Amino acid sequence: MAFFIRGDRRIWCGDLWWRAYERRPSVLTLRREALSLGAHYTVRSSALPGLIGFLAAEKLDPREPFHSLMVAVAEKYGPRYYGEYEVGIDQIWVIATDDEGRPLPGSDGVYSEEAVEAVRTGFEGFVFERRDLLSLEQFEALQADLPDAPLVVRSISLRPYYLAGALALALLLLAGEGLHLYRLHQAEVARQLAREALLRSQQRLARAQAPREIPPGEWVDACIAAVPEATFVHGWVMAQLVCHDDTLLVTWTRRGGVLSDAPSGDIVRNGEAVESPIPLRYAPSRSMPADPAFGERALFGILQTAGVASQINRATITLMVGNRKVPTLNTHAVFIWPGTPHDLPWDRFSGLRVIEMKRTVLADQASPGGWQFRVAFSHPLLPTPKQERHS
Questions:
Q1: Is the pLDDT of residue 164 over 70?
Q2: How is the chain split among helix, strand and coil, in percent rounded to 5?
């Protein structure tokens, strides 16, 4: 259930569920999602395009000045921020932002003192520049300094649509166009059925043409192959390489050059640096099959044998698979491999995901630093026989 804090001119609300949508969802889609979460209203914020929040409250007036506590705090403190605010007895509200200042999954939630420990563990793989632990009094003092974060609140009730449809039908009937309306309705139903049939056909085709899953070794090879050969171009020095998702981001730092001669990309740091994104190009190869017995311990053992230190964080989280909650053990690790990345048998590790490769390039030295890897292993936790009997 969401909480509300009424101020002089704003009503702060928190403890919402947020979902990302690539395309604008229909009213029925939002209604189904809201009912599955036990929510009564949907909310939108202009600061978070593509995200829709779901709010659980018995009854409220959508015309009142509701503002998102999560959006306001994220805008005030910006990227790499972590905060825990006391909002009640044994109730802690949590927010965390990524490198771009967008809230991370798990934000805008209220947790007990016991449950918040698991939340902290889940964020251990992220680097935060600022951390705040506010008491109830400090949190109340902060509210006056927060920027506006207005929300558009809408009820999931279909009653307004029913009333509008009934009024339109009555007017058409009174105008003597009942038969014409019936024919239009039949034609619309036929078009809708055709659209639904086409949509089902497209969904089946999309499932049949699902993109190929890229093995870890192939992804690492594509990252290395995308690195430009030249490290110095017209007074610009290659400073950093970061591979994430399907893109290599090359950061060039100015060393005597000017922007007109800089490599293509986004201008950052007041023109002192340029970030050039390069898409990864995959070359399918014969990879070794994953060995179920060759998991995270095998990787950490190889690193220890090579004298490589690792930052390992483990946390149990609950993922929603359809309408079913699945407890999952997540292991995140960060390490720097001193040799060539090809030395590691990436494809053999069972359940491995390479999240990021990063390297700081020192163009004026003969031995630049190694690649820093951020990897993860995920394993569903099987319920015990006792848990199965109680479920």
A1: no
A2: 30, 35, 35
